[in-house]
Design goal:
By secondary structure, the protein is an alpha/beta fold. It folds into 2 domains: 2-303, no CATH class; 416-470, no CATH class. It is 27% helix and 34% strand. It contains 13 helices and 22 strands. The strands form 2 sheets. Strands 3, 4, 6, 7, 9, 10, 12, 14, 15, 17, 19 and 21 form a 12-stranded mixed sheet that branches. The chain has a 10-stranded mixed sheet with strand order 2-1-5-8-11-13-16-18-20-22. Helix 3 runs antiparallel to helix 9 (176-184). The longest helix is centred in the first third of the chain and has 17 residues, at 2-18. Mean pLDDT is 81; it is low at 1-13, 15-23, 117-123 and 238-242.
Length: 470
Amino acid sequence: MVDKQVESLVNANEYVERYGFSEKVEYEDFEKGLSEDVVRKISKIKNEPEWMLEKRLAAYRVFESKPMPRWGADLSDINFDDVYYYRSPKGKEAKSWDDVPEDIKRTFDKLGVPEAERKFFAGAEAQFDSSVVYSHVNEELDRLGIIFVDTDTAVKKYPELVKKYFGRIIPPTDNKFAALNTATWSGGSFIYIPKGVKVPMPLNAYFRINAEKSGQFERTLIIADEGSDVTYIEGCTAPVYASNSLHSAVVELVAEKNAHIRYVTIQNWSKNVYNLVTQRAHAAEGASVEWIDANIGSKINMKYPSIFLMGPKAKGEVLSIAIAGEGQVQDSGGKIYHLAPKTTSKIISKSISKGSGVTTFRGLMHVAKNAADVKAHVSCDALLLDGFAKTNTYPYNQINRNDAVISHEAKIGKISSEEIFYLMSRGISEDDAVAMIVLGFIEDLTKVLPMEYSLELKRLIKLDTSGGVG
């Protein structure tokens, strides 16, 4: 038992060293708590047009009127009056990495963000609390007519596009946290891919909460025009504090006819962050949308990427992994709505839990009355690392046609002492043996990730599952 406690402490210290550190940053003055005056102040600081302020105020009224969710994880500890809804470090957004303030640069240098951009990404932005502090797009993307800016900039430079799509897929009335985001949003990514353009390399964003009791409410909107193709990868971390932080993002994806969007998330928030995110995509005729969703961190995670297959022959896929360690709740899954004929989809969920960690899969497969010749598959597999871990599965199918071909499978397994003993007898340490088994379990996810992120995910999983078998 003592050995396990020591291993747990070592793992926690490794997270702090690599991700859970914080920098002493000078912030602009802003009060704590949420009110109509706070919403107005956020909009004024950003020098927004009146139409965006009106959206914010309407959303704030929705937030005030909606109750907290009565299902899922326990959110009763969230104190909305004890959160900073806007925390901006002093200084302007930098176009060159050399111009980023030194204290903020140290954070992202430690996280490897500029290095990842140089090695791999076509464009990148870095968000620190409420502000995008760095944004860069290479010349090739400019030449192709691709727009990749933070959403605050898009409101000013591309107002007609923002007006057309902002809140169209996820209105503030959708849920309490979508309303909260719409009222208080800052930063996030706005991407427009012109007709027929294939983005040659992934676009990347990195979101960092630094200040204690901060909320981060980025708003991401990606529009892939007809026949275009884009991959977007986001990562996120936060320092370890005794008090809780709140992350409540909204992501809207629009895939027009025959377009393809792949959206990848590596969520590694520290275990004092509530991660409450709404993500949804619309896929037109022949379009394809993939959500690849890895949830490793946070105290409570509630996230269910959704795809609405709006046109014939549209395709949707949600591939998710959730790892719940001590004291964590990972409540995740996916939803797909077949609203047109000959649409196809797949939801694949892998969850791993240990100790007091709890994983929950929530999946919805909906087939509308007019959606003929639908094919869909749902698979949810859970792996328990000890005798204390818990997992729940809540699949829900709404099938309104007899010709739909829907398959569903679910498995729950546990790492056996015999498996561990066999690997250890070959000279492999116990931690490495556990990691090998876990990585084999989630191979579906790691093999579709770009190499840089696949290697980092494998390293994170090894760190998070170390000492996990009881």
